Amino acid sequence: MMASLFNNIPLMIMLVGALVGIASSLVGTFLVLRGTSMLSDAIGHSIVFGIVVVWLLTHQASGPLQIIGAALTGIFTVFLTELLVSTQKVKKDAAIGLVFPVLFSLGVLLINLYASDVHIDAHTVLLGEIGFVWLDTLPIGGVEVPRALVSMGAMTALNLAFVAAFYKELKLATFDSALAKALGFAPTALFYALLLLTSGTAVAAFDAVGAVLFVAFVIVPPSAAYLLTDRLWKIFVYASLIAAASSVSGYYLAVAWDVSIGGMMAVMTGVFLALAFLLGPRYGVFAQWLERRRQRELNESRTLMVHLYHHEDGPEKAVENVTMALRDHLMWDPARAERVVERSRQRHLVVQEGERLHLTQAGRNLAREILEPGAKAETGA
User: Fold this and answer.
1) pTM of the prediction?
2) In 3-state terms, what secondary structure has residue 138?
3) Is the dihedral of CA 86, 92, 97, 99 positive or negative?
4) So where are the chain's domains?
5) Tell me, which fold does domain 287-380 have in CATH?
6) Is 358 helix (H, G, I), strand (E, B) or coil?
C-alpha cells in the first residue's frame, strides 16, 4: 500500500508543492513581518553561486553539502548587503539589488567555464520542474520515494522545529528588536539563523519549483495570511493552508490548461492573495467598504440626534423636528432623510408621528454623549 501511495504521481507532485509552500511560509512569515521579504529573492538567485562553488570543491551536485554551502551563500549575501548599508552610501533595497546580481552572475559564469558538462543548469535552478519530481527517487525501506519529497519533508520539519523552539524569541525580535536585545534574546543571531534556514529551504526547493517560484511561496502566502488575521500563530496556519491549496489547485489547473505546474502553483498563490485583499475580514476591500458605510450611517444618525436634541425643548420644535427640516437644514435629499429616519427608528433612537420626530431616551443619551463629555457615565450611574 505504501508503494502504491508513492507511485501516485499527481499526489506526489501536489505533496511536494505543499511542502515547499509550507516550509517557505514558516520562514517567510517573519521576513514579511520584518519588511525584508525581498531578501528571499536575493538568496534565491545568489545560491546559484554557492551551488557551483560546492560542486567545484566536492564534485557533489546534491545532498547535505550542497544545502549547507548554498545556505552559507545566502548568509554571505545578507552580510554583504548589510555591509553596504552600513556605509550609509546606499539604501537597503539598492544594496540588495547590487549584491545578488553579482553573485548570481558569478555563479552563471562559473557554470559556463567549469561545469558546462555537469547537470547544473541556471535555468533549472531558477525555474525547476515539479512535474518531474517522481523521476528522481531514493530507496527507503524498499520503497522508491521521490528525493524532493524527502528533502522538503526534512526542511519543513526543521523549519517547524525552529519556529516552535524559538517562537517567543522570534516574535519579540520581529516586533520589538530593541526590547529583545535588552532581554538578551540576541535578535541578530536569530535573524541570521532564520536566513540560514531560508537559504537551506531555497536549495531544497530548487529541484522542485525552482528558486524564482520559491520566492513566491516565501512572500505571497504569509502576505495573504496577514490580510486575514493579526495573530501570529494564525498567520502560520493560514499561510500553510494557502500554500497547500495553491499547490492542489495549481496542479489541477496546470493539467487542465497544459501549462507549467510550478508556475500555475505560484499563480494560485497570487489568486489567494487577491481574494484576501478583496474579502479579508478586517483589511479587505469589501470589509473596509462596509466599515466606511457603517461609519457614514453612524455619523448620519448622530447628526440627526444632535439636531433633534438642540430643538427638543425650544419653541421651534414643531418646525425643526420634522422630516422636511432635515432636507432644508441638513441639506439631505428626501431619500436620504427618509433612510436615516428609518434606520434611527429601527435602532429605537427616534419615534415618528407623521412628520414629527421625537427622541427616545436612547437617542437623547446618544446626543448627550456627543455634546456633553461624561454624559454617558452620568446616565449610567
Assistant:
1) 0.83
2) strand
3) positive
4) 2-282, 287-380
5) Arc Repressor Mutant, subunit A (1.10.10)
6) strand
- Could you list the beta-strand ranges (E) of the chain: 137-140, 143-146, 350-353, 356-359
Which cell is 296 given? 457614514
| End-to-end CA separation in angstroms for the chain | 72
**Per residue in 236-248, is it b (16+ CB within 10 Å) or e — as a string?**
bebbbbbbbbbbb
Rounded Cα distance, 144 and 135, in Å: 10
CATH class of 2-282: mainly alpha
Sequential pLDDT tens for the chain (381 residues): 555 666 788 999 999 999 999 999 999 999 999 988 888 888 877 878 887 888 888 877 666 777 778 778 888 888 898 888 888 888 877 888 889 889 888 888 887 787 666 555 555 555 567 888 888 888 887 888 888 899 899 999 999 999 999 999 999 999 988 888 888 888 889 998 998 899 888 888 876 677 767 889 999 999 999 999 999 999 999 999 999 999 999 999 999 999 888 889 999 999 999 999 999 998 899 999 999 999 999 999 999 999 899 888 878 777 788 888 887 778 888 889 899 999 999 999 999 888 889 899 999 999 998 887 655 544 443
- Rounded to the nearest 5 percent, the helix, strand and coil shares of the chain are 75, 5, 20
By C-alpha distance, which of 132, 134, 117 is closest to 55? 117
Parallel, antiparallel or unpaired: strands 137-140 and 356-359: unpaired
Domains 2-282 and 287-380 share a fold: no
Q: Residues of 115-143 as b/e, b for ≥16 C-beta within 10 angstroms?
A: beeeebebeebbbbbbbebbeebeeeeee
